[in-house]
Amino acid sequence: MKKLPSLSKQKNLKGSGTRQLAQLRRFLKENHDLPRMVDGIVIGFQPDADDYLWMSIGIPEDITQAAIKRAIPTIINWRERLTNFQGRSVHQTPASFYERLWRLHKIEGESHWDIAKRLNRELEVMLVRCYKTIPWSSWEKRAAQDLLKMMGFTVSQIKEIWEEAMNNLASGHHPIDPNYPPITRDHVITRLRAWKPKRRPAK
Question: How far is C-alpha 173 from the chain's CA centre?
Answer without folding.
Answer: 24
